[in-house]
Amino acid sequence: MKFWKQTLLTLMIASPISLVQAEPVALDKVAVIVNTGVVLQSDIDTSIKTLKANAKKKGQSLPSEEILTEQVTEKLIVDTIQQQEAERLGVRIDDNRLNEAIGEIAKSNQQTVEQLRASIASEGLSYAEFREQIRKEIAASEARNALVRRRINILPAEVDNLSELLAQETNATVQYKIGHIQLRVNDGDDKSEIEAQAKELVKELNNGADFSTMAYTYSKGPKALQGGDWGWMRKEEMPTIFADQIKLQNKGSIIGPFRSGVGFHILKIEDVKGLETVAVTEVNARHILIKPTVILSDDGVKNTLNNIIRQIKAGEATFGELAQQYSQDPGSAAQDGELGYQTSDLYVPEFKHQVDTLPVGQISEPFKTVHGWHIVEILDRREVDRTDSALKNKAYRILFNRKFNEEASAWLQEIRASAYVEVIEDTEQDEL
């Protein structure tokens, strides 16, 4: 989820590119000190002129010069603090990712990259400066995303409750083709024996046994002679005992055994119509993480990881052995570095890029994330049908977006409040 795109695209789509360069001055001056960095007066002047130019094109009115200056200055202060956070975390945006972002900006403005470049040049701006500004904005957004994600806690009950609400809306249109096996419990029957038989049938069905044949053979239900086939039904048309068990499962799901007053039941979702299908790629990767310290520099970590790669390729040690010896991710190190099957969107952007692009069996070059330096190897990829969790995924995304926006706002307020900010006046200094 690349939240930086929203910020960039909002700015760039609002109107055709209209960036105004500040008038040359004999000597630029520091307008604001922000921690160990500064906001220059030319930064403020450029931003104000850009806003005025875009507002004029769209016929929008702007507040007074004083208010406009105050708003622009505050935004530049917050932007500077976020960029400092990115530097503190060691976030680096390589040229490939930067080129992708600029390509999206151009596309959103219905331009080619060459046309975007020409638009920037026509305003008297350096394309190199434009690229570096976009690089800084992306890095700041990535740092914000990484730090805000750590603050978000979504409880399973929250997801379940919201998915139930979404299900109520979806159930009106979803239809299920249902297969049913009923094992009847008569007076005097041993219920535990029949339950054990039902569990054995479920085991066989999960191992590939034909449902209709099993229904003909064992079912005492009303559709036994139709191979247990109840046909297509919406939940509101089903017997209550069926509807209570169906929670938007995907095609092929075996449900049960579950108990009713007449015995034990097994259902099969033969097919589904009208339900969003979700197919995802899960990746099983393993990695080794080493964190720089005051003693071990970034170059030292890279050399260590390159030596680990050499040992693995030379057959001197296995990836798992070296993960247990060196990796500073204790959870995966105990599992020979394995992270298990996961979708790549769970990882931070730099790690996700490696997981998405590396061929199976290949070890990456050392790369850095907010957690430290890594090497990663892809063990396997598989396609997984997640139709049964489609609404839970949707509910999770909704909750995440809500909480992200809330936590991002709180985080910005916190880093702004804790920052040292001093506005430099011509004759005096005012501390904010």
UniProtKB/TrEMBL annotation:
Residues 1-22 form the signal peptide. It is found in: Periplasm. Residues 173-271, 280-380 form the PpiC domain. One of its GO terms (biological process) is protein folding. One of its GO terms (cellular component) is outer membrane-bounded periplasmic space. PANTHER family: CHAPERONE SURA. Chaperone involved in the correct folding and assembly of outer membrane proteins. Recognizes specific patterns of aromatic residues and the orientation of their side chains, which are found more frequently in integral outer membrane proteins. May act in both early periplasmic and late outer membrane-associated steps of protein maturation. PROSITE patterns: PPIC_PPIASE_2. It catalyses: [protein]-peptidylproline (omega=180) = [protein]-peptidylproline (omega=0). It comes from Vibrio ouci. One of its GO terms (molecular function) is unfolded protein binding. The PPIase activity resides only in the second parvulin domain. The N-terminal region and the C-terminal tail are necessary and sufficient for the chaperone activity of SurA. The PPIase activity is dispensable for SurA to function as a chaperone. The N-terminal region and the C-terminal tail are also required for porin recognition. This is Chaperone SurA. InterPro entries: OMP_Chaperone_SurA, PPIase_dom_sf, PPIase_PpiC, PPIase_SurA, SurA_N, Trigger_fact/SurA_dom_sf. Its EC number is 5.2.1.8. The gene is surA. Keywords: Chaperone, Isomerase, Periplasm, Repeat, Rotamase, Signal. NCBIfam families: PRK10770.1. Pfam families: Rotamase (PF00639), SurA_N (PF09312). It is an enzyme of class 5 (isomerase).
